[in-house]
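Notes from the pairing session

We agreed to fold both candidates in a single pass and log them together. This is the raw record for the first candidate, unedited. Please don't reformat it; downstream parsing expects exactly this layout.

Candidate A
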Amino acid sequence: MTTNVETDGIARGVLEELGDEHLVLAVPGTEYRLRLATTADGSTLASHLGKRIKGRIHANALWMHTAQAGGRFVEPVWGAPRIVSGAVLTVDEAKNRLLVDVAVPMWVTLADGQQATDFAEGQMVNFYVTSGTSFEPVGD
């Protein structure tokens, strides 16, 4: 599996809502409305309201499991991510994280006691995430 971390790690969506410390990202072609934390400047993001936006999604796994089968999904469909399932795109050993395709690409930092090298590209995984999954806008 060949992954270009610079492009494949970028989530694309429509900025549907903007709050003081969160935003709602609508994922095109799906019913997903992901409520994500952000520390980005609200005045800069306000110009993207109702328009396309791209950025990196970061989450912290409580404990990651491998799966023999399954799909790519985020639960709940509307709201802050809690349960996630997808395919590993990239293993980042240096930062102990994985890039996982879960309907959108998501960088996932592993729980204490787990190592990124325990997982392989293409492997299906599922996990709960801690509160505060975040969105970091990139470029225009």
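Candidate B (folded immediately after A)
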Amino acid sequence: MILHLHWYDWAGLIGVALILFAYFLLQAGKMRGDALTHQLLNAAGALLVLVSLLYAFNLSAFLMELAWLIVSIYGIVRARRVRRRT
């Protein structure tokens, strides 16, 4: 099965790995939830999963990843504003 994966399948798998890695680092206390790196890992992961879903569409998964990307972008913008104030 793994030999028959298309590039967009690999993109989705890498996206899932990035999101899970960010979550693991958060749970392990190695990264804060408001850290730019954490938000970027989540945003990149969601974007890669969204790309894969464009080729193998699933509405509920697409909406979940779109929301994940939007929340990640919100976190990036919010953290940037907070850093500017301090």
